[in-house]
Amino acid sequence: MTGGYDDRDGVIWLDGEMVPWRDTKVHILTHAMHYASSVFEGERCYDGKIFKSRQHSERLLKSGEYIDMPIPYTVDEIEAAKIATLEANGLTDAYVRVVAWRGAGEDMGVAAAKNKVRVAVATWEWGNYYGDAKYKGAKLDISAWKRPSPETIPCFAKAAGLYMICTMSKHAAEAKGCSDALMMDYRGYVAEATGANVFFVRDGEVHTPKPDCFLNGLTRQTVIGMLGERQIKVVERHIEPSEMESFEQCWLTGTAAEVTPVGQIGDYNFEVGALTRMISEDYEKLVRT
Q1: Are 18 and 104 part of one and the same domain?
Q2: What's CA 248's distance to the chain center, in Å?
Q3: Measured distance CA(259)–CA(261) in Å, rounded
Q4: Number of H helices, E strands in the chain
Q5: Are residues 52 and 102 in the same domain?
Q6: In CATH, what number is assigned to the domain containing residue 206?
Q7: Same structural domain, 51 and 152
Q8: Between 20 and 30 A from 246 (CA), which of 79, 111, 180, 239?
Q9: DSSP secondary structure of 90-155
Q10: What pLDDT score does 195 carry?
Q11: Three-class secondary structure of residue 187 per DSSP
């Protein structure tokens, strides 16, 4: 599939109907465009099966609850919509994007309770999120922006508004020739990349930031489980930025990123070592079983 995301063949599931891709439009006064009243899920389909599909649908509904936006579909209905969209587009290996948002309606201010919540499912072929960095090791900048306190924003929702500083951070990173940026949290601890969780290795142990102010990714949870099955100790804790100097390996996890090794973060360098490659290979096998 080529061309801009607004100009492609295929269909998108929109509010219960299959609509030609180019015709899935929203009004300029859609509430989500002005006030970020939107939540979404990014998922990958391997050999006709969406990995952790139901968990993604459950999280979508939970994200809607977090931002006071009840989604008018059940988990089963969303599951059926995803399958139908893949089939209608003839795809078995694809990325799946489910998005829910406050549409245009009687309200056009901060409040939007009278506006209908709309839902769409789109799917397309998508390769490695970080390109060849998936094999060579990604290079990360260190973001000037920090993940906010849970007291200031619903940080456990996968909500559009939370990604504003991520977009800014990634743009700044790409301008420096980096693939992404590592973000600290509001206290100064290591948090995550702009769209992926982070893991470090030291002396055979794996360390990963405690997700107390950012999304506890489904891929993150999967990888922790895989490491446990291999009897590899995983320590979830607050990590000081200066500790990166002592870590030997590093990788990112996310539905789009899958398991991507990291070769450099700022001035800190990491090897793409045996443990990193092993967990990446294990994950590749798991998603296709």
Answers
A1: yes
A2: 25
A3: 7
A4: 7, 15
A5: yes
A6: 3.20.10.10
A7: no
A8: 180
A9: T-SSEEEEEEEEE-SSS--SS--TTSPEEEEEEEE----TTTTHHHH-EEEEEEEEEEPPTTTS-T
A10: 96
A11: coil
Residues labelled as active-site residues:
158
Looking at residue 98, the DSSP 8-state letter turns out to be E
Q: Which one of 94, 124, 154 terminates a domain?
A: 124
Domain boundary among 73, 106, 124: 124
Whether residues 113 and 176 share a domain: the answer is: no
- For 166, other C-beta atoms within 10 Å of its C-beta total 19
* Beta bridge mates, 217: none
Q: Quick one: which of 107, 2, 94, 99 has its CA closest to 51? A: 94
Three-state DSSP class for residue 253: strand
Q: How far out from the chain centre does Cα 289 lie?
A: 22
Q: How many domains does the chain have?
A: 2
212 DSSP 8-state letter: S
Q: Counting every residue, how long is the chain?
A: 289
Question: Domain limits at 78?
Answer: 11-124
Q: Give tens-digit pLDDT for 218-262.
A: 999 999 999 999 999 999 999 999 999 999 999 999 999 999 999
- State yes or no: pLDDT of 161 exceeds 80: yes
The CA angle 108-152-62, to the nearest 5 degrees, is 70
DSSP state of 59: H
- Output the domain CATH number for residue 45: 3.30.470.10
- Cα maximum dimension of the chain: 59
Whether the CB-CB separation of 95 and 125 falls below 8 Å is answered with yes
Same domain, 187 and 267: yes
User: Distances from the Cα of 17 to the Cαs of 20, 100, 105, 113, in angstroms?
Assistant: 10, 15, 20, 24
**261: β partners:** 251
Look-up of token digits 């789109």:
122
Q: Which two tokens stand for residue 260?
A: 């991507």
